[in-house]
Sequence to fold (706 residues):
Amino acid sequence: MPRDLAREIEDALQNGNLQQALAGFTGAVGFLRAQAIADLPDYEGLRGRARRIKAEAIENLDALLEQLKESVEARGGRVVFARDGEEALRYVRDLIRAHGVRRIVKSKSMTAEEIGLAERLEALGVSVLETDLGERIVQLARERPSHLIGPALHKTLDEVRGVFREWLGLEDPPREPAELARLARQALRDAFFEAEMGITGANFAVAETGHLMLVENEGNIRLTARLPKVHVALMGVEKVLPALEDLTVFLKLLPRSGTGQKLTSYVSLFAPRPGLHLIVLDNGRSRLRADPELREALYCIRCGACLDSCPSYQAVGGHVFGGRVYMGGIGTAWTAGVDGLEEAAEFHGLCTSCGRCTEVCPVKIDIPWLNTAIRSRARQLESPRHRRAARVLGEIDRWARWGSLLAPLGNRALHSGPGRRLVARALGLDPERTLPKFARPTFRAQARTRPRSQRQRLGAVDGVKLFVDCFTNHFEPGVGLAALRVLERLGVRVELARNVCCGRAALSQGLLERARALANENARRLLPELREGETIVGIEPSCVAALRSEYRHLLPPKEAEGLRERVRDVMEFLAEPEISRRLSELLPSEEPKKVVYHGHCQQKALGSHGAIVALLRDLPGLEVQTVEVACCGMAGSFGYKREFAALSRHLGRRLVGLVEAQGQGGEPVACGFSCRSQLRDLGGLRARHPVQILDELLAQSQEGSL
Fold:
């Protein structure tokens, strides 16, 4: 039966306990993670090295797995390759019978969760005790884990106390987490001595030596692996690394990314020995490996940093933003691989493609692209109505051209009650959401017909091609004109690029072939015309991100790199030393204008956010306050869709609340069209692009000097 995702979202947002638990966990871990990484020398270099190690390991997987088998068995262990959960279960069942096993202790393992190992063994009449405290809590509550490393993070302290009350028969369980953990240790201690088998996962396995590495904070893994006479370690094929020295890279990244620790309390390196049975599971991983678009999902080291930074996950948790086992943006590719596209299609739409996950991923997995690929494939499962809506929303350049041509008549029709409801019903949109209004004339038309005095190039020493995005061209030409004026006042030679739509809208709807065609057309038009030292400057951050990030999946490498090196966000361009110096010299310094700045998700993912904030804070004539939220919640068409309307509003109200609380009378500014729409619709706030503020200040300065 298909999931009612809209209802699940509503229920999660109205669940006060869940909201409290999610905010507490993701907020705390995010803060600790940032602190731990700040102390790590050459963090970006380590991320690059980790990605290369994983990429090479997956490329040479067959040889490494054979080497791992030889290394383990040379020291008395046993290695078994299982194609699926049935084969893995069959092997464990045979071990249970051979050794007369009645009691099993088990440590945390998402791979075991993936094949339902504990439940299936219990169905055979064997006792399986989860010894990780979070896993024990969800086992007793008969729930699924909601996070890769924090299985029970969706539960508040009072809910956990309720579990302890039933588990240990306590009338009034302690309120201190440390005291609860102490009681759990006491309750579990005897089980380690009584068990005949221990089952663990493995964070990594080393092909050259056969060692298994596991990291933890509770100590239960060592007891699980060493006290019972039989140790079964279950790992996915992707966990193998070539050499022992590779572990040092991941030991620096995994704890910091997962829990914000420089090192976990326990790091165990288990050498192969008699009694070790290593089950190496495929279960769909070979399909992922053979899939060029989804392959890098296998680079995942299960740290959970992507979940903690994801705005959708932060709002609804892993039981909503997830499948049977895997959750969040990375969970869509894993779900497609191990459970099939149909299940991944149920929740992939919760990914807004904001890029915050890739920003924090220790191996730089392009998770938004994985979701774009899933979205493209999931279209075949959608109804004709949904496919029709995707075509309309994904071809903004085509219908916006007609919208501008027919404005203002079209605007009146679309914004009237009946017209608005008709469009909402036809496209599956939220009827309460205000649609943008088409502009006539467009930005291109106004730029071509400006008075000649406004197009003077006084002392021009830099050249830019201004990329004309659909949002600026058809909905907010004033932003484009402000960018033109600012650049020209700084002596920059500006020409409008002969570009077509960047393809961002097509990507958001899974229309990959259309996005690829647009990318190729832009490369054909833009690259041959770029002069030496000339830059392509974009106004809309999501379009800049398409050219600099997504195009590497759509174009040949040489063309993609050629564009990536030459494309800059307009504010990023203004932050370059020589340009920012000129800007500072021209701006007035008296009576600074107060603004409150919200940074765009894509600017943060591309790494330009810090430079933009520094520019705004250093400029004379501005007093800047910044607000930090994971995402505004609009994310292009995401915020317009009826299915995600409640989530979009929830995220947007967080932003509005911060702007109102921290703004102190300052004018809201945001670079993204969607962000400004969200501030307007949910808070009634008139938000402008920062380039419009700079244009206004430069005009005042020029008037004052006359």
